[in-house]
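Fig. S4 source data, part A: sequence.
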Amino acid sequence: MPSLKEFRNRIASVKSTQKITKAMQMVAAAKLKRAQSQAEAARPYASRMARVIANLASSVSGDSAPALLRGTGRADVHLLVVMTSERGLCGGFNTQIVRLAREKIVELQAAGRAVKILAVGKKGRDQLRRLYGPLIVNYIDLSGFRSIGADAALIVGDAVRELYEAGEFDVAMLFFSRFRSVISQVPTALQLIPARAPEGVTLPDLKGAVYEYEPNETEILEALLPRYLNGQVLQGLLENQAGFYGAQMSAMDSATRNAGDLIKKLTLRYNRQRQANITKELIEIISGAEAL
């Protein structure tokens, strides 16, 4: 049985941990509001850009289509862009994204496809390199950015395009977690190259009108597709950021409540042990007095 001093030290240690988890919960809650607003504000732009790309792409086909739209014509080598957070203490947030990427890797390898990984975020890289270390061709560290925004998306987008222009892959897919609520983040896979509109995107209703573009559709797509790719990456980063703070707030709330429960249990055991010691001392005093 631990001594009273050991109980007091353990209770003090758990209380210190509880203060830390409570502070982290409050910080995550404060940052979540801004991150959620940014993610929600970016969704209309991404949706409208997808509709524009889908409308223009319907008029372009064959060799005249831009490289980012037509692809290489093969699907032998796949690049998986796995975006996770730079920090932990967020429950299963990162693990869910990595699990979806692993399932895709197993599926592609079973079909005889080659797989390469571009890791964005420390936690995803650390988990993936345990089993798929040789497949990681690049790692992008976002810890140096004070806030995730267009600058970070540009770095990731440029890295993907450089690999594509060098002929390193045929198909690129983006893995991130779409923010739904504080307790719900949905791991999502989105194809980047060849560019295509996400599922559910409907073409604009032109009401029978015929548009003539100047310059032509191909030149417009050449200018828009890199921005569209960067926009998808930015959307993934913002969704990830909001999901991370939501998951961290939820995890720290659970940790704070668990620490409170543990403190109650330890305090109860401490009081019982203290009472037992007092009773033992009284028995010894009474026994000694009767012996005299």
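Fig. S4 source data, part B ends here. The helical segments are 4-57, 67-70, 93-110, 122-132, 150-165, 217-291.
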